[in-house]
Amino acid sequence: MNTQLRLTLASVAGVALFALLTLAIWYHPTSTVDLPQLVANSLAETGTEHPITAVLLNFRSYDTLLEVAVLLVAVVITLALAQQDSNEALSSLEQPARDSLVIALTRRLVPLVVLVGVYVLWAGSYQPGGAFQAGALIAAAGVLLRLAGWPIHQRANLLLRVGLTLGLVVFIMIASIALVSGQPFLTYPERWAGELIFAIETVLTLSIALTLLSLFLFSPEALSSQSRKPSKEKAQ
Amino acid sequence: MTTELFTTELFATELFTTELWFALIGALIIGISTIGFFGATHILKRIMAFNLMGSGVFLIMVGLAQHDRGVDPVPQALVLTGIVVAVSATALALIIFRRYIASGGQSKLPEHRS
Amino acid sequence: MTFIDLLIGVGLVFIVVAILVSQDLFRAVVLFVTFGVLLTLAWVRLQAPDLALAEAAIGAGLTGVLLLDAIGFLRKRKAARKDRDNKAIRAKPEQGAANE
User: What pLDDT shows up at residue A223?
Assistant: First the structure.
């Protein structure tokens, strides 16, 4: 297909999509269910005070469970596609980034970011915050460490794999507790709901942070051991 | 003076709310990035356009739901999981792209190379 | 709808157009990060602080890093390929001379 025809078709599709969406938004039907009111009414039974955390881990916890499974699948594919010699190839990049100023900066900055992440996780039970935001923050701290030249990718061992799967495993275990006492999947025992949700959130934070970090750390490198040699000679 | 930016309504009617405005912006973003998605030939550009489309969908979801009822935690929670899934899907797409390049592929699809 | 909403909305659309028409990939990624920051403001205006928090960390931070890393990968790859071609030409002087 030539470029002109493709661009024309793309423009027609884009404009038609925009027109349809605008019409749909303008003439949307008003829903008969008042969801915010429903959430507010049963917030007291959920064991958490923040409505979004309640929706994520109590009302719609099935969605969250499957989402964690999706993240795990993504990271499994990443680890499978990672080159065997990627660690070796990466080590050639260590030297230029190890600036003493950068080392000092990351030494002070990263613990602070992790601390903020833990606070955001804790705050999630009564105000904006929660597992996903905290996980993203801690992953960002890890990315910062890696960019500053710390060889954290070399710690990719059994412990990392345990951390990646821990969130999903603990979530499924807690979800299955209800099955033993004859209740449906994913119902929390009433007295312990708040504590269980916080426990799930804590392991989810760990798993999400490790997942997002692994997606960055284990991407294929440009210079595998065969093609790296010529460029190294050039540098000398 | 500065608070006027946040409080003064541009339109007299109450029908055209902030939420509706952002939903319409979301629709516009989806439309433009559809053109960009099919128009671009570089794979990275296509991945970016797809991401922008996703952001448009999120804007419509939250904006439209909050237009009638006010702040609604349900779509907000769904979009929150959506953002995390979107970034992991993007990362996966980039990793597959890099693997494709590393094994001898080019950054444009075969049918777009002239 | 207030004036600040108008600014954020028009800015979002403008940046999307700029990303899609830009020929330079690096420029497109920088604009993509800017889009994430503006979208964070949009979530604040939609009274969704959780989304703003996630968008600031993920949309503006992590996605930008991933895309920049991919561009770095492409550049390194290109340099390595050029290097290899040069070496191949030097290894066979008679062919290299014929090319010149």
Answer: 57
How far, in Å, CA of A31 to CA of A49, rounded?
26
Domain of B85?
15-107
- The total of structural domains in chain B comes to 1
Q: Look at residue B37 and tell me if it is in a domain.
A: yes
CB contact under 8 A, B31 and A63: no
Work out the mean pLDDT of chain A and round it to a whole number: 82
In a domain, B2, yes or no: no
Nearest to A230 among C61, C76, C80 (CB): C80
Mean pLDDT score across all residues of chain C: 86
The string of pLDDT tens digits covering residues A162-195 is 889 999 999 998 888 888 877 888 788 777 888 8
User: Alpha-carbon distance A177 to A195, whole Å?
Assistant: 14
- As a dihedral over the C-alpha atoms of residue C4, residue C5, residue C7, residue C10, rounded to 10 degrees, the angle is 180
Contact C73 B98 (CB under 8 A): yes
Q: Where are the beta strands (DSSP E) in C27-78?
A: none
**In one letter, which amino acid is B20?**
L
**End-to-end distance of chain A based on CA atoms, in angstroms?**
46
Q: Is B42 helix (H, G, I), strand (E, B) or coil?
A: strand
Q: Of A15, A25, A77, which has the smallest distance from its Cβ to B24's Cβ? A: A25
Q: End-to-end alpha-carbon separation of chain B, Å?
A: 57
Nearest to A35 among B28, B69, B80 (CB): B69
User: Which chain A residues are closer than 8 Å to C74 by Cβ?
Assistant: 222
DSSP 8-state assignment for residue C60 = I
Instruction: Read off the CATH number of the domain in which B57 is found.
Output: 1.10.287
Cα–Cα distance, B49 to B38 (Å, whole number): 9
- Quick check: C62 contacting A, CB < 8 Å? yes
Give the confidence band of A229 by pLDDT, cuts at 50, 70, 90: very low
